[in-house]
Amino acid sequence: MNAWLLLLPAAVLLVAFTHYPILATIRRSLFITKRNGAEMFVGLDSYQAMAADPIFWKALINNFWFALGTIPTSIAFALVMAIWVNRNMRGRGFVRLAYFTPTVLPMIAVANIWLFFYTPDYGLLDQLRGVFGLGGWNWLGDPSTVMGCLIVMVIWKEAGFFMIFYLAALQQLSPDLDEAAAIEGASRWYTFRRITFPLLMPTTLFVAINAVINSFKLVDHLVIMTKGGPNNASTLLLYYIYEVAFAFQDSSYAATLTVVLLLLLSAVALVKFGYLDRRIHYQ
């Protein structure tokens, strides 16, 4: 009985702020609100409209490429940075701080910093291009470059955050493992591939789940930098939900899109846990 009482506060918060909103969102996707405020049951009509919505499919495809560009790259950079700053080196504290600083910056500040980099003609990138005699480029106004610009910005911001988890995990590994591998004549790459990285798999699973969630929740930067443009080339799924809910005032369709987003994240989480859990080696 005491155990249930101790769990009660957390359970109440979980139900109130997770389970109930999910159920309410699913219910909302099955209804529409009339002008007089009354609700009318429409069943799967909103889902049928979503299936025929070209902007939804555009946002979904954009999000796929955005996730593909940010998740593995940010994890790889985080691991490399963690290994680098885990060594005995001069200025190690300063390097750690430099890597972690982008993480603590507010999202709006990050968006404005990168707006300066990408601004045509007088932005930092175009100034560097001018050194080589190249003209200005509208980085955020060109459909062929806008997504790459967002991917680079997100990797810059997130890699330092993921680095902290890898650094903590590396510091928990026994140095005897490296010493034993060195005695056996194993190279550094072989030691990393066969010993270090397998022992980091619990951290990799945690980081990968967070990276997936982060890749589907980008809104602030888009509001400041592109507003989904040009021609929806940078529209991501959560930004489209935000736009539908608050700009178009269509809460039923926004709920429908949210349900699809939840299903996508749940499916990815199940696959990750099912695939990576078999490859995790706990100490």
Descriptive notes:
By secondary structure, the chain is mainly α. It folds into two domains: 1-43, no CATH class; 54-279, MetI-like fold (Orthogonal Bundle), CATH 1.10.3720. The protein has 13 helices and two strands. It has helices spanning 2-28, 45-51, 54-85, 92-104, 107-118, 124-131, 146-172, 175-183, 188-199, 201-215, 220-225, 237-247, 251-276; strands spanning 31-33, 39-41. Helix 3 runs parallel beside helix 7 (146-172) and helix 12 (237-247) runs antiparallel to helix 13 (251-276). The longest helix has 32 residues, at 54-85. The mean pLDDT is 87. It is found in: Cell membrane. It is a multi-pass membrane protein. InterPro entries: MetI-like, MetI-like_sf, UgpAE/MalFG_permease. Residues 60-272 form the ABC transmembrane type-1 domain.
Helix content range: over 70%
Distance between the termini: 34 Å
Class by SSE composition:
mainly alpha
Could you name the CATH homologous superfamily of the largest domain? MetI-like
Instruction: Report the average pLDDT across residues.
Output: 87
**How many β strands by DSSP?**
2
Strand content: under 5%
Q: Report the CATH C-level class of the largest domain.
A: Mainly Alpha
The domain count comes to 2
| Rg, Å, rounded | 23 Å
Order of H and E elements: HEEHHHHHHHHHHHH
Strand order of the largest sheet: 1-2
Instruction: Return residue spans where pLDDT drops below 50 for at least 5 consecutive residues.
Output: none
Q: Name the CATH architecture of the largest domain.
A: Orthogonal Bundle
State the shape. Answer: globular
The major sheet is characterized as: 2 strands, antiparallel
Oligomeric state as shown: single chain
User: With helices defined by DSSP (H or I, 4 residues minimum), what is the helix count?
Assistant: 13
Domain ABC transmembrane type-1: 60-272
Pfam family, one: BPD_transp_1
Protein name: Lactose transport system permease protein LacF
GO cellular component, one term: plasma membrane
